[in-house]
Amino acid sequence: MGPLAGKVALVTGGSRGIGAAIALHLARDGADVALTYLRAEHRAERVVREIAALGRRGLAIAADSADPEAVTSAVDHTATKLGRLDILVNNAGVFPYGSIEETTVQDLDHTLAVHVRGVYLTIKAAVPHMGEGGRVISIGSCFVERVPYPGVSLYAMSKSALGGLTRGLARDLGGRGITVNVVHPGSTDTEMNPADGETAETELGFIALGRYAEPAEIAATVSHLAGPGGRYITGTSISVDGGFAA
Q: Where is the signal peptide, in residue numbers (predicted)?
């Protein structure tokens, strides 16, 4: 049956990369999984088909994490269609790159809307659906602990906000048996940051293990936090970065 049998999860930004790997790992562990996507409907539907092939229910929801109404609606739609909500994984993200001089107000507002406001509002909508054993897991970044090269200040700042939110919500929700944690991935072999991409050689120089992560390795930590092994883990940040911040 799997450790997550009978559970329902929502993974934002679950159509590809780390998000898709998380959605599939949760399904393998027995959960029914909803996922949101912005534009890649065909990819989202492919993940849903893979979830169904594992014998679980899957649901793809078009939702822009920068849109407050869309994220709230996605949560409520998940709970309505799949009957409940036990696990929320805040994975949707953007990657602004450039110096502070190059950064526009629109860049700033959009990044914070997705990484901070969107996460906060998604959790706010999800918590009323959760009971004892609920799990909130956000996907941060290795740049929270170390920023070894220029151009990622806005990204690092926005992901750093998740640490404070995680610690605060762990206190707010602990009495209800809901855990809240953040996972900080390092360089991961995805379409957005391929292991053979232009920046790969530079990034490998900072990684103690000397290789990129596979998306499944990030997903394994998320699934552990979502399952029975995560019952007593809350308010913490876990790095899965191959020693990037060592």
A: none
